[in-house]
Amino acid sequence: MNLQKIKQAKTTYAISDTIASRWSPRTFNTHILTNEQIMTLFEAASWAPSSYNEQPWRFVYATREQQEKYDLLFSFLGEWNQAWVKSAPMLAVGIIKKNYTHNNKPNKHAAHDLGMASATLAQQATAMGLHVHFMGGFDATIANEGLNLGDDFEAYTMFVVGYLGEVADLPESYREEEIKPRTRKPLSTLVFNGAL
Asked: What is the pTM of this model?
């Protein structure tokens, strides 16, 4: 079964292949990522746009070879995610800096800007033949404490990066979801000209 072909977006308008082929698998093989691959992903993220060029995102990552660090990040995840994440070679936390550096006022765009950096990272991963799966299913309070983030930062998302694995390697309860074609809401429900 060619999962990549099943998950190729069927779009109404011609979009970039990098965007059309990006998706979030739950099945990863254990192939190790090189430091150059990892830093390339974060370099791409660093070029995302942000309010006042604040770049209010921070990333904490660990690879399987760094077992103690990986286990710490893994402990932040909910059980649903822990069940399939186990084989992914890299696990990371996306963090926001809550206040602007130049005036220490709340940065209401920080989460948006982390999202921009995350999307840029995901597109770079796709261009490199890798996959990223972002997760909200984690305990942010435990993550904030475990990473000693203090009052200035907040854990906002988690994600894994790696090479596509086999559906058969997933727990059975996850397999059906994994092979379903990707869908999106019609643009008519999301985009409005002049007023909502």
From this structure: 0.93
Q: Dump pLDDT digits (tens) for 76-135.
A: 999 999 999 988 999 999 999 999 999 999 999 999 999 999 999 999 999 999 999 999
Euclidean distance between CA atoms 174 and 20, whole angstroms: 23
Using the structure block, give the residue that is written with the tokens 């990040």.
73
Phi, psi of 146 (to 5 degrees): -65, -30
Angle at 95 between CA 22 and CA 31, to 5 degrees: 45
Report whether 121 contacts 62 (CB < 8 A). Answer: no
3-state DSSP of 42-56: HHHHHCCCCHHHCCC
* Residue 12 scores a pLDDT above 80: yes
For the chain, the straight-line distance linking the first and the last C-alpha, in angstroms and rounded, comes to 41
Report the sign of the C-alpha dihedral through residues 32, 35, 37, 43, in that order.
Answer: positive
Single-letter amino acid code for the residue at 151: D
CA distance 172 to 145: 33
What DSSP line would sit under 42-94, residue for residue?
HHHHHTS--GGG---EEEEEEETTSHHHHHHHHTTB-HHHHHHHTT-SEEEEE
